[in-house]
Amino acid sequence: MSTFSPDKKLAGILTPVSALRGEEDLGVGDTAALVEFAGWAAQKGFGMVQILPVNETGNDHSPYNILSSMAFDPLTITASPKWLPEISREAYEEITGRHDLKALRAGGAKYAAVKALKLELLKTAFRVFRSRKADPIRRRAYAKFERNEADWLEPYALFRALAEWNGDEVPTNWPEEHRNPSAAQEWVTSLTPPRKKSFEDLVRFYSYVQWIAKLQWKTVRAAFDKLGLALVGDIPVGVSLQSADVWRAPGIFDLTRSSGAPPEKIFKSDPFTEKWGQNWGFPLYDWEAMSHDNFAWWRRRLGAACEVFHFLRVDHALGFFRIYSFPWRPEENALFTELTPEEAAARAGGRLPGFVAHDDSTEENRERNRFQGEMLFRVFLGETGSHRLIAEDLGEVAPYVRPTLAALEIPGFKIPQWERTPDGKMIPGSEYQRLSLATFATHDHPPVCQMWKDLLADCSDPARREAAEDAMKELLKFCGREDIAIPQSYTREIREALIGGLFSCNSWMVVHQITDLFGLADRFNIPGAVGDANWTTRLAGRPSDWENLHAEAVEFVTNALSQSGRSSRRSS
Fold first, then answer.
1. Which stretches does DSSP call E strand in 407-461?
2. CA 117 to CA 112: how far, in whole Å?
3. How far apart are CA 522 and CA 449, in angstroms?
4. Where do the domains of the chain lie, and which CATH numbers do they carry?
5. Considering the entire predicted model, what is its pTM?
6. Under a CB-based contact definition with an 8 Å cutoff, are residues 29 and 538 in contact?
7. 526 pLDDT band (50/70/90 cuts)?
8. Which of 16, 73, 244, 344 gives the lowest tally of CB atoms within 10 Å of its CB?
9. C-alpha to C-alpha distance for 324 and 198, rounded to whole angstroms
10. pLDDT tens-place string over residues 151-208
């Protein structure tokens, strides 16, 4: 098993698994594609790969709107015979031959079509697994998995079977007898023997899918360990209101409000987000209720994640101190966009968006929030161990958050454009705390090339020119390249200055989005955006193709890593 220490600086790449292409992917990146990518990243000298959440999602394919805090998304499963022993090559070719693989693999991710194909393959594999042809060793391994994971697996599999049975993943649309686990169990016992067997087979199928997923993700972890490469997973701040977790235990959630984030200048994707902030739609946690069993739900979730990932990025760490929330659901956002605060409060029963449980308006409230965050992160550290959590501490940061995380030795994020001294100057990377992760952009932000193009466009506006040129100068000064003349377009020289400059900072971890390494304008997510196009970006070519597609960029990054002292190549 690989271990990682702040004594050795790491360089990483951020990419969604869905964006990767592999030898036999079916239109969405999978475990095999990630292993292929890991080999490329390690060979170039990277020490870590950061991915987005891989929990199961619903029809909304945002990786942060999850149907289960524990279940892997079946879309991540590699369904080829090499990775799925119960499927023969003949069966695989026959099933995939009924689908237009060329169309599925072209362009962006086509989640619904690919998921349907993978479930077809998995159901075929499951029938073999339940037959006399099944490998007895694998049958025993599956039985052990069922016993060990029963606490979450049994209600989850029942939930997923009910969703398929009803043809609807939204539990509130189900018949009354399906809307909670105890009623659903009574309903199952009331079925006629043929219908009961059919339904119970469906439940076992979804258990089998999770067993396959867990096996494959442990194979991924083993491949990363062998390469000496860290895999950084992502723990979403919330779960879907329609999730298996809420269906099973609604009492540990606050279902009266919808979590989100306050308005920020960086996000102006639509009028609602600019005015009110981001309304994510997730229920809040009832921390008091969760404390009654010593936060068992969180301990189980983090413990399972640590079996696969070396590091865990805790999404929206600020929300564990106090969370911004809405008294209305996201589907109602349009009704509030044009309203004044007074009008919105009248419509929402006297309530407005704001921080809960407490805002930071008094010293007493600030201390309550600080104490809550410290207490929760101590619980998390008790499950994960030290130097395994990374706090995504971006947004409206209360003054007590970063000191609390620093005292717990939990790295936070450093985005150079936002790290400022009290008088507004950009903080040099040499002054960053070692326990930090530095990056120019996350999956929520425009790619760096777009950021630079926006600054260049502002340079043509007399009212914005000075500020835009100052921003360019600051970035180049941060990177030690004040010799580069500005304003100018996003050239290879600019891209290389920004990449190399970030590598040179003092942070333990430096992560570039893979699109930024190659100077691409592709964007993974636009916060607040709705529609089928969001989250669908896929990279051109497999890793083995990048030597030709991005030859100059690959060569530069390899050399820059070596020069920065961050290279993990064994020959270095």
1. 412-414, 436-438
2. 9
3. 10
4. 11-235 (3.20.20.80)
5. 0.95
6. yes
7. confident
8. 344
9. 44
10. 999 999 999 999 999 999 899 999 999 999 999 999 999 999 999 999 999 999 999 9
